Amino acid sequence: MPMIRRLRRIVRRVQRKAVDLSHPSRSPLGSAVVNCVVYRGGKRQSGSWAGLSGPEALRRVREEGDGFVWIGLHEPDEQEIAALAEPFALHPLAVEDAVQAHQRPKVAPYDDTLFAVFKSVCYVEHDELTATSEVVDTGEIMVFTGRDFVITVRHGRHGSLGPVREALEADPEQLAKGPSAVLHAIADFVVDEYLSVADAVQHDVEAVETQVFSPDAGRVDPGRIYQLKRELLELKRAVAPLARPLAVLAERRNALIDPGVQAYFRDVGDHLTTTVEQIASFDSLLDSILQAHLAQVTVAQNEDMRKITAWAAVIAVPTMVCGVYGMNFEHMPELGWRYGYLLMVSVTAVACFLVHRGFRRRGWL
């Protein structure tokens, strides 16, 4: 089983595509701005549109009255995001949240902008789970959605949105629906990562379960189970709070959400519900595994105590005989008999044998 799980992880590493920095949607610009692209009619604009700053691209889009701007940022500081706050009319509270990060998943409307926060998660590969292993790493993706722009702010070393850009650019019909299509694609991408991480964590849970119920269960470190529960709790904190924001996006009418896109958020919500239920089942299973392990430890301790007690009872027989005949009395039975020593040794050996046999029959030895 451990070999099979190791092979599965190797396959997952191979299946993951390497980041292609030559692709325009993944080319870093040397600052917090990862990319700034204009889309019109579902197609990426090049030529005179390429190389424009965010405010300049937004100005041209509004002058021509068609298309939208998608700006990607990675861990911007206050000055970098302040340069976009005024031209894009971003609310100060949302800007503060985007800079400081560490926010709960939410969807908040601010005037003509919709601010969404998603927790991104990543499974940390490890050869063997230990009491200090990091299993789940979290980050944040924040999305400002307007009528003619999308600004994504990413915190953390994972959760690159390059694949999302590529998938949307390969589907011009969906991308033509505007910024709300980008918001849906990001939500769908985040929830799909939740499912992948939950599947990977399942292998760790199965590994712990197998070890607990193996013949060497007494050597299992309970700290590994507690560590996995802590990592599972971190995953739950990232996943569960997103249910309400997705319900809001799927059910409430919003001028910034295209009606043709709104129904898709319901499907994302269904996938999230599946993940939440899966995580809850893992947590319940780990509780049962921990209780089973503690019960096994208790049973093993009881068996050890029974063995110690049985051997103590066996040793008590010669101890009693030696204690009696070790007394300094002048007149005691068989003290002057020639075969007294042989008789006492024989009686003691037979008594010890009978006591030992009785404990063996009862399974104490």
UniProtKB/TrEMBL annotation:
Q: Name one Pfam family in it.
A: CorA
Q: Where in the cell is it found?
A: Cell membrane
**Which branch of life, at top level?**
Bacteria
Keywords of the record, alphabetical order, are: Cell membrane, Ion transport, Magnesium, Membrane, Transmembrane, Transmembrane helix, Transport
Q: Which residues cross the membrane?
A: 308-327, 339-359
- Catalytically driven reaction(s): Mg(2+)(in) = Mg(2+)(out)
The record describes the protein's role as:
Mediates influx of magnesium ions. Alternates between open and closed states. Activated by low cytoplasmic Mg(2+) levels. Inactive when cytoplasmic Mg(2+) levels are high.
Q: Of which family is this protein a member?
A: Belongs to the CorA metal ion transporter (MIT) (TC 1.A.35) family.
**Name this protein carries in UniProt:** Magnesium and cobalt transport protein CorA
Species, as recorded: Streptomyces mesophilus
